[in-house]
Design a protein that fits this description.
By secondary structure, this protein is mostly helical. The chain has one domain. Helices cover 75% and strands 0% of the residues. Helix 1 runs antiparallel to helix 2.
Length: 102
Amino acid sequence: MPSKLNRKAAMGILAGLSILVVVYSLIIVQQILLGLIVAVAPWLLYLLVRFIFTLERIATALEQLVSMRAQEQESTGSAGDYQRPSESYERGTETEGGVENK
């Protein structure tokens, strides 16, 4: 993962390149749409790469969380405090129409 200084430098270079491409397309080629398309493409690529790195960080954090919880369960030796409600309790609160008894 690049540091903030490297990221700012990369964004500065990308911004400068985008401005040069737009100016070139306006003055030399005289087609603004072509310049905008060429200038926006690197930004979209940059955002895609940032999105992928962010997803990777989220996945890594979730894996660490799961492994920590598994270690905690192994150390306590229990499957947790959650107990599923009994079927008799569930049947007693509903009628055939799905509305609770009053």
